Amino acid sequence: MSNYQDEPVVTSYAKAPARTVTAGGVTYAYRELGPKGGIPVVFFVHLAATLDNWDPRIVDPIARNRHVITFDNRGVGASTGSVPDTVEAMADDAYTFIKALGFDKIDIFSFSLGGMVAQDLVVKHPDLVRKLVLTGTGPRGGKDIDKVAGTTYWDMLRAAVTRSDPKEFLFFNRNETGKPAAKAFVQRLEERTEDRDAPIKVKAFQTQLKAIKKYGRSAPSDLSTLTQPTLIANGDNDRMVPSVLSEDLHRRIAGSELVIYPDSGHGGIFQFHEEFAPVAVDFLNR
Fold first, then answer.
1. Where is the AB hydrolase-1 domain (predicted)?
2. Domain containing 218 — which CATH number?
């Protein structure tokens, strides 16, 4: 890790260097940016997403004064191996990756499926995590999480018919505020022009959906044991992971903070990035 110390600090996600680390027979692809030292903020990405799916308007403000790491879990994007069919196993892989980088303490920023993986990780390794940001996500056993697959396939079909990105349907309301916010978000994801990640494979995506369904149908985790400061955020009209589940998480995690953005969906934090990024920065730096 010390061999990167002399490089200038990169604070733009579009320019973050691509790295790999191998552990447990898997080569994990990751990017890092921001000043080294201190506790890193590790980003846990959403369903069907790779390193290219993080909104630079969220990552860059956090990376101004924090060491940020985004990664592809096993079988995703440029990481090798195959995606496990349980969220718990995904959390085990994430743990392997974090330990391979030599960290004993991290902050987590998570979105959607990433938030489910993050919860399983914290429950199993409470000492690893100092602070937790859970966005667009819900608890294990949460109401209607098992319906994510149906919603996803339906919106992918709608998107194909209109030749749009499925995220425009899945993450945003189809109204006069949601549509332009969706287009702007999808454009921001294209800001990195070189050294882009490998796309997710269809089988990997299907396996992730299977894992989410299992997660939705399993017994809830005991989140009352969580002592980490936790920030929970979502839009008020999340069709993928219903917004009520953010309130459910807030009730289950003592002392957690909850932010719900109006007239927005699963991608509420991306639609309201100008409001949300400072909240996340402040929470993580406090």
1. 41-270
2. 3.40.50.1820
